[in-house]
Specification:
By secondary structure, this protein is α+β, with helices and mostly antiparallel strands. The protein has eleven helices and 15 strands. The longest helix has 31 residues.
Amino acid sequence: MDVLQSDSVFLSGNSGITCFSEWISCEHVFLLVMNKMLLFLGLGMFFLGACQQGIEIEGQLDQSPAQSFRLEELDIEENRFVDSGRVDEKGHFKLSSKIGEEGLYRIKFEQNKYILLAMKKGEQIQIKGNWNQLEDYQVSGSSGSMALKSFLVNLRENIKDIRTMQLIIDSIETRPNNDSILSMAKEDMRIINVRFMDYVKKFADTTQSVTSALFAVNIINPAFEGPYVRKFYEQVTNRFPESKKAKAFADRFLKGSASAAPAATTKAATGNPAADFSAPTPDGQSLSLSSLKGKWVLIDFWASWCAPCRAENPNVVRAFQQFSQKNFTILGVSLDTSKEKWMEAIEKDELKWNHVSELKGWSSAIARNYGVESIPQNFLVDPNGNIVATNLKGDALVQKLSELLK
């Protein structure tokens, strides 16, 4: 979605869609800058100076309270603060700031509301919207931001379809003797997912905005769509030869998947012992995987900002409720950076099992040691501490537990 809030983005957990970063977080947006706007007028000349060196943003948010905001760039490893400013009592804000090549930025307002922009230097961006329906904002003056907005609108509509279909499936599953209807519903869900994946791929392959292309491909799970994702990164630097970000993302994926990632993944493969680790719980205590030895343990990598993770959580909750009395438990490992958002998501999604987090995002040593490059991802560990299954999503998790915990 364009305005990302904690409960706003949901995708099918087994659709091939995943989270690589807080971009989709599914998620959030800092903003704004207030340096002096360098305008000078001359014959046939206008908006030179500052605009050629950076960007100008002017916005009007009806019914917005007077408030501060931040502009932050969402980079490959971290979120970089750019500037800050204020929305006045009439809902108006204005700023200019120097930026480099096209990148993904987020305007973060109060009440955890956000707007995503794909901006490059030289753009004069206009934003219009209503504070009470911020997701329906309009943007002009930035080709990348307009492309991204269009993609996010379609994303939101597909999310609605997927959520509606999942509710139908859940309802059918509660009734006996409806196997044929259930099969038809699941086939409809599969078709929705396939069509959506085709749309995401087409958008990533054809958009003229490097930021929008990277945004789109980063919600595709390489565990399901590995050949496509690899081909995308092999070609992206030819499509956008001047983009340092395209090269950075391509190098990270291609080099990682060719060397470090396979080694780590092999180490955390089915049949191997699960590497021990310890990390802080929400109440500040340290909890280790080895302390749970003797139980069946699902190591569940997720994050509050990860839309597919939040969509998969109901399936994990269902498995926990069904098997928690059969020597089964879950250890959630969050790739959050905000303790507050992590704890809010635990409570909101009713995740009533053990949780740990280093609060380091993708710099998590635990995730790196397990070869985790996308989430959600999980590892099922037997009472002896050995990995017996990985990446169990949707019905597959309950089915596997039913086989093992008779």
